[in-house]
Design brief:
By secondary structure, this protein is α+β, with helices and mostly antiparallel strands.
Length: about 280
């Protein structure tokens, strides 16, 4: 028998001290704890922990630490074939507790998501990757068989957006917005990811469900796409918006998932179908 406590997350902010201070990056300290307690000593199998931000992320990580209990363990940092950091843990003795604690400090740098260069041949959709790109991106172009609901969704999107010439960025924005409109957000605690057909049938899903659905949609349109996950940090605005919603009224963070598309010249571009951003 076990009791699970967590994951617990805490966000601490370091903001400019005076209203006249020059614009600067907001520094965020994130604390993420997951703990398990057992009613008797147990043997723990080797664990792989994937809770370290990827090196290619655009958010600067000032510091990072991963602490694990029981204290007697062996930890080796590895990188998987996609460049993700993986901590492999081996526990030589029985224990009644397992605790994983992440502490990191990040600079919440303001980034213009459209500030990138694109190769001229890819500016209009549809476009074709070069032969070199096709070989390098083969894993991200692999599609699953489509069911009737996904087939219909793709046909509707073609009819709505591809009846006339369209800019590639406009096409991606339109797909992302349509999916955000069609699928309502659901907090889902069950493990695993729904199939695209299941998500479309229910018309609701968690961030990982809509993220994976968008990956498959983009691949069926010939755009290389991959599933991404990490921490979502949202900060309350210092002042209420004069026009439109002000957003969250408190600082908070959670685990999140989204989709990234590969655009020639620009590289991997993030798309979040949960928010439509």
């Amino acid at each position: 028998m076990r009791e699970a406590y967590g994951p617990a997350r805490r966000v601490v902010l370091d903001r400019p001290l005076t209203p006249h201070a020059p614009a600067m990056t907001i520094r965020v300290a994130l604390y993420h704890e997951t703990s398990y307690r057992f009613d008797r000593p147990v043997n723990l199998s080797p664990h792989e922990i994937r809770l370290r931000p990827a090196a290619h992320g655009r958010t600067p990580i000032e510091s990072y630490s991963l602490k694990v209990l029981p204290a007697k363990h062996f930890m080796n940092w590895q990188q998987d074939p996609y460049g993700n950091f993986v901590a492999r843990l081996v526990f030589p003795e029985k224990t009644r507790e397992l605790k994983v604690v992440v502490d990191l400090v990040a600079d919440m740098t303001v980034i213009n998501p459209f500030d990138f260069f694109m190769e001229s041949y890819a500016e209009q959709f549809p476009f074709a990757y070069t032969n070199d790109n096709k070989r390098e991106l083969a894993a991200y172009l692999d599609v699953e068989p489509t069911g009737p609901l996904l087939t219909k969704w793709l046909a509707d999107a073609r009819a709505a957006f591809l009846g006339k010439p369209i800019n590639t960025i406009d096409f991606l924005v339109a797909l992302n917005a349509k999916l955000q409109s069609d699928i309502s957000y659901l907090i889902r605690m069950e493990p695993g990811v729904q199939t695209p057909e299941h998500t479309l049938e229910r018309a609701q899903g968690s961030c990982r469900d809509t993220g994976w659905l968008l990956v498959q949609i983009l691949r069926h349109f010939g755009i290389a796409a991959r599933f991404a996950s990490g921490y979502l940090i949202q900060l309350a605005a210092d002042q209420k918006a004069l026009d439109g919603p002000s957003g969250t009224d408190r600082d908070f963070t959670d685990l999140h998932a989204w989709c990234e598309a590969y655009l020639p010249g620009a590289g991997w571009i993030g798309l979040d179908p949960t928010s439509g951003l």
